[in-house]
Amino acid sequence: MTVVTAQRFTIPEYQRLAELGFFREYERVELIKGEVIQMTAKVTPHCVCETLFCQELIQLLLGRAMVRGQQPIIIPDHSEPEPDLTIVCNVNDNYLSIHPKASEILLLIEISNSILKYYQEVKLPLYVEAGISEYWISNLINHRLEFYSEPCQGYRSNFDYRRSEIDFIA
């Protein structure tokens, strides 16, 4: 009997595969705990939500922090997720030398219109383990914004709000 095991990759191995063109340019993939995960295509509600978040956050944070969209972050040693939006500390080289790591991340936002369970059951524990201080899920399925903060064996604080209860304050 032959036992088949999945190949797991380190971050440098995954980055090298990308450099070599192993993934098609239009493919949406990310590295989660050593596995290359194919992400779903974005649909219109997802795109609109991401655009609106981005516009508001850039205005609110101008000069104080950087807003990155669909950009990799580093979670040693085997994860390089690409959250929908990431708010990170400003750094001199604008992350040209290396992607942001957990200590530089102020907030992660994922937008879900189809794979909510993936964000709640796979990414949430990953971000807790990494010590990401704030994580939001824009839950388009149930029209809610879920807030998670204070990571420690799960997030100690979590709240959710209906769409009608949300308003950005400058």
TrEMBL record:
Give any Pfam family that matches: Uma2
Chain ranges of the Putative restriction endonuclease domain: 12-156
Q: What sections of the protein cross the membrane?
A: none
Question: Per its UniProt record, what InterPro entries does this chain match?
Answer: Nuclease_put_TT1808 (IPR012296), Restrct_endonuc-II-like (IPR011335), Uma2 (IPR008538)
Signal sequence extent: none
Q: What is this protein called?
A: Putative restriction endonuclease domain-containing protein
Q: Tell me which species this is from.
A: Nostoc azollae (strain 0708) (Anabaena azollae (strain 0708))
